[in-house]
Amino acid sequence: MNEKLYAIPVNDAFDAVCECPICRMYKTLEDDAIAYTMGPSYMEDDTRAQTDAKGFCTRHMEMIYANGNKLGIGLIMKTHLDKIIASTEGLSELGATKKGLFSKPNPEDASDLVKKLEEFNHSCFVCDRIHHFFERYIDTIFYLYTKDTTFAKKFQECRGFCLKHTQLLLTEAPKHLHGAEYEAWVTLVKNLFIENMKRMRDDVEWFTDKFDYRNQDAPWKNSKDAIPRGMTKIASILVEEP
Question: How far, in Å, are 6, 37, 77, 148, 228 from residue 139 at the CA level?
Fold first, then answer.
C-alpha cells in the first residue's frame, strides 16, 4: 500500500502537541517544498521548466524570498518573466463585446490575454508540489485509522483540528469509510471538534480575563499561548512560539 510510505510523517504530526496535526503536516510539506525549490533543484531543467510555467502564489513568493537565496530567486524569476512575456505578447487583448447593459460577463468571452493571465495568477509550483503529497497524507490518515490501533488511539486523543481540516476529514470520509464505520467517524470528528473548540474558547477567555486587574495575580492556567493556538484552530495558521 502506498499509504505505508507516508505513515512516518503522519504519525510524527499526530505525536506533536498542537491544535491541528493536519496543519503541522501541511507546514512540514510547505517548508520542504520551499527548501526543494530553492535548493540545487532550481538549476535542473525539468524543475525550471515547471517554475517557469507555473510561477508562485503570493504566499510562496514571499517564502522563497525569505529563504535568502537571492541568486536563486533571481534566476528563477528571470526565466519565469521570459515565459510570461513569450506566452502573452502575441495574444489578443480584446474579448467578446457585451450584448447588453445588464448582461453578465461570460468567462468564455474573455480575451486570450485575460485567460492566459488567469492561468498565471492561479498557478504555483510550490502549491502543486505540496498538494501532490498532502493528498496522500490524508489518504494515509484513513488507512492508519482503520489498520493501526495505536494510530487510532492517537487520533481519538488528539486536540482536534482546525476549521478547514475538520471539514476536510468529513468530506473525504465517504471515499474511505462506509456504513457504521463512516457514521462512527463522523461522530468522533464532530465530538473532537466541539470539545476542543470549547477548550480553546475557554483558554482565550481566560487570557483576556487576565488583563483585568482583579486577576493579575491569578495563574495563567493554559492560556498564555491561547492566541497563537486560537489562530491555528480558526485560520489554520501554525505559529511557532519562541
Answer: 9, 25, 34, 14, 28
What is the rounded end-to-end Cα distance, in angstroms, of the chain?
Answer: 39
Spatial distance between the Cα atoms of 58 and 178, rounded to a whole number of angstroms:
39
| Per-residue H/E/C for 143-167 | HHHHHCHHHHHHHHCCCCCCHHHHH
pTM, to two decimals: 0.87
CA angle 26, 30, 35 (to 5 degrees): 150
Residues 6+ apart with CB under 8 A from 27: 238
How many helices and strands, by DSSP H and E, does the chain display?
A: 11, 0
Q: What is the pLDDT of residues 42-82, one digit of tens each?
A: 889 999 999 999 999 999 999 999 999 999 999 999 999 99
